[in-house]
UniProtKB/TrEMBL annotation:
Belongs to the PMEI family. It comes from Thalictrum thalictroides (Rue-anemone). Pfam families: PMEI. This is Pectinesterase inhibitor domain-containing protein. Residues 31-153 form the Pectinesterase inhibitor domain. Keywords: Disulfide bond, Signal. GO terms for molecular function: enzyme inhibitor activity. Residues 1-28 form the signal peptide.
Length: 187
């Protein structure tokens, strides 16, 4: 039986459509759907969309685990920016700070130095299908900015890091929430 050129064209265009769908991973609007589900008391739809659009790969995520894999490096970048801010504080203003404040700034640097590789460990856990481990790790990472702030509070010092720590904590909160959703199967 001889195929008509029209039926061959239909088969060819169907294959191209399947290949393109596979390359893009998800249909348009999926990122928006995820952000609607992620929305909560400390996370807004607009923040979620702005955050996830920082990674060009987020819109290609096929599931929550992969979305978390794309979101975690954004949080790691925020941690790096916060660390650089700390170094700027002690380099530029170090002579103005009390010794205890400088000590806390150094401790915060250590916290951020250790937190960023732990976030990468969470990505590796997700890739190994160990979502529970990734969730535990991201909870540890989520505590880094809070612990930094607590160093100052326990000694009744005003933290020069409050705003930077709050932004960083918010940037870690979203990937943590995505991992939590993947863990609980909330799709």
């Amino acid at each position: 039986m001889k195929r008509s050129p029209l039926s061959s064209l239909f088969v060819f265009s169907s294959l191209i459509a399947l290949i393109l769908f596979d390359l893009h991973g998800v249909t348009p609007g999926t990122l928006e759907d995820y952000c609607k589900k992620i929305e909560g008391p400390n996370l807004t739809y607009d923040f979620c969309m702005e955050f996830l659009q920082r990674s060009g790969y987020s819109k290609t995520a096929v599931d929550l685990k992969q979305l978390a894999e794309f979101a975690i490096p954004i949080a790691m970048d925020s941690m790096g920016q916060t660390r650089r801010f700390i170094i700027t504080l002690w380099d530029d203003l170090g002579k103005k700070w009390e010794e205890k404040t400088l000590e806390f700034l150094h401790s915060c640097t250590d916290l951020y130095d250790n937190g960023s590789p732990r976030a990468y460990d969470a990505i590796e856990s997700l890739r190994a299908n160990n979502t529970l481990e990734a969730y535990v790790i991201m909870n540890e990472v989520f505590d880094v900015p809070r612990i930094c702030e607590d160093l100052f509070r326990q000694w009744w010092r005003q933290s020069p890091m409050t705003e930077a720590n709050a932004k960083c904590r918010q940037d870690i909160r979203l990937p943590l929430h995505i991992v939590q959703m993947a863990l609980t199967g909330n799709k």
